[in-house]
Specification:
- This protein has helices at 44-63, 89-106, 129-135, 177-187, 221-224, 235-255, 310-315, 320-336, 352-361, 379-392, 403-411, 432-438, and strands spanning 10-15, 28-34, 65-70, 77-82, 113-119, 144-147, 151-157, 163-169, 198-204, 207-213, 259-261, 270-272, 278-280, 287-289, 295-297, 317-319.
- It is of the alpha+beta class and 472 residues long.
- Strand 7 (151-157) and strand 8 form a beta hairpin.
- 40% of the residues are buried.
Length: 472
């Protein structure tokens, strides 16, 4: 009696029993199990196989599940294909086309076999808790990378060897499942070399976890404000960081399909990869602007004092220009190597912005340069960054440059820059933090110091442009 099993080609193309919510259908890890028996190339069996694969890839995207046969005994073939119910017809079609090619490539001239396409966990947006617990050794302290106002970040490693960073949200900042899923799906669509890549999230039990690509050099503040590690940041590296942050913000504000306001830009949210390239991270406070929307308001202030634009800190108004203000603070911190928060000087400056403004107007801006840079920097280039930083922190949001203008400033040294008006907090008056509290605002940032001891005033000085970099 003939054994039809020798001619049986049980093709299980896709047993995609996904546990995840979203997939990138073109990325798969294939598992093959090929029969040892061969068929002759050019035979009827090969013709039947091609017909079978065509039927499966045509019908399955429409039905989600399809099994069929092709040929007559002894060349009868059986095939089955299934796509996850959450996948679109287009995603299913893309996957099936790829898988049908893989079964020919991985099981050439074989009479039996199976090829399964399972989604790569790092390309999915939803992770299961067990995977992340295993990756982080159950969130052991030794894997802790840092803590912020919204949660603790742990280093982890997936089974495929990829290193990840897992943010474990604090209970008081946890969102609803649908809200967080929507936010993750939104941010995952942002693709830029100067944005930290969000790999996904986990919403299981009492846990809400965000999964990011791992950045080996951690955050900018761990270099910039450390007396030893700051020596590794020469001017070339710092300029590259400034330019990278600017390009990342430009993408968020203007170049992506979605207009995103970050709202919490600071040194601890600028991560550095292995080559010291900067990537903007932590979109927990980010807001999406739709259509022609240019600004919005909130009664709940969330962010970090020292980086907040005055119109946001006091009145809850935010826009792309409030991000520009935060960027200006970052630039001044990078140039000087000093923190804006908790700033203390004997000459009466209440914050880094005032300190920088005083030096600029007195014609001694070169004294702002971080002493660790010594003579290695190009002074004119550094002073241009100081001027650009002061332009970004002006009190009137309308006077601040856009990020597209900032990028132009960084790349076109022949262009002249306008004279800045005084920075937002360069005035006398009551403490801004008291104003915030009186407005019933809630600050979620880590830092809330009393160095902002003046309420801001708006200035409008439309001076002529200058060509030299030192003030008159």
């Amino acid at each position: 009696m003939k054994q039809p099993i020798q001619l049986l080609f049980q093709t299980f193309l896709l047993l995609l029993l996904f546990q995840h919510l979203f997939i990138k259908a073109q990325v798969f890890t294939y598992i093959d199990n090929c029969d040892s028996g061969n068929y002759t190339s050019g035979s009827q069996f090969e013709t039947n196989l091609n017909h079978l694969l065509l039927s499966l890839t045509t019908k399955t995207p429409l039905l989600g599940f399809y099994n069929t046969t092709s040929g007559e005994n002894p060349n009868l073939l059986y095939g089955l294909a299934q796509c996850t119910g959450r996948a679109s017809a287009d995603d299913c079609q893309t996957c099936l086309n790829t898988s049908s090619s893989e079964i020919i490539r991985r099981c050439p001239n074989r009479k039996g076999g199976r090829v399964g396409g399972d989604n790569d966990a790092t390309e999915s947006l939803i992770f299961d808790l067990e995977t992340l617990q295993a990756a982080t050794d159950n969130f052991v302290d030794i894997n802790k990378l840092g803590e912020g106002g919204f949660g603790t970040v742990y280093k982890g490693k997936l089974l495929n060897g990829q290193e990840i960073a897992v943010k474990r949200l604090l209970r008081r900042y946890r969102q609803g499942m649908d809200e967080l899923r929507n936010e993750v799906a939104l941010v995952a669509k942002l693709q830029h070399k100067n944005l930290v890549r969000l790999l996904g999230c986990c919403l299981q039990g009492q846990e809400e976890l965000l999964v990011y690509e791992y950045m080996p050099n951690k955050s900018l503040d761990t270099f910039l404000f450390d007396p030893i590690r700051c020596l590794l940041l020469d001017w070339k590296s710092r300029y590259k960081i400034i330019e990278g942050i600017a390009r990342g913000l430009l993408y968020l504000h203007e170049d992506s399909r979605l207009k995103i306001i970050h709202r919490d830009l600071k040194t601890s949210n600028i991560l550095l990869d292995g080559d010291m390239n900067p990537k903007i991270a932590d979109f927990g406070l980010a807001r999406l602007f739709g259509g022609d929307q240019t600004h919005a308001s909130t009664s709940r202030i969330a962010g970090t004092f020292g980086y907040m634009a005055p119109e946001y800190a006091v009145y809850g108004k935010f826009s792309t220009q409030s991000d520009v203000f935060s960027f200006g603070v970052l630039v001044l911190e990078i140039v000087t190597g000093r923190k804006n928060a908790g700033f203390h000087e004997s000459d009466g400056a209440i914050d880094l912005l005032t300190y920088a403004w005083q030096h600029w107007t007195e014609g001694i801006a070169h004294k702002l340069i971080d002493r660790n840079l010594n003579e290695q920097c190009i002074r004119q280039e550094v002073l241009r960054c100081v001027l650009m930083g002061l332009l970004c922190v002006q009190g009137d949001a309308a006077e601040r440059p856009t990020m597209s203008t900032v990028v132009l400033m960084l790349n076109s040294f022949s262009s002249t820059l306008p004279i800045p008006s005084p920075p937002a907090f360069f005035i006398e008056g009551s403490q801004m933090e008291s104003d915030v509290l009186r407005n019933n605002s809630v600050v979620n940032g880590m830092e809330s110091s009393d160095h902002f001891n003046s309420k801001f005033k708006l200035y409008s000085l439309n001076e002529a442009s200058i060509t030299e970099l030192d003030p008159r």
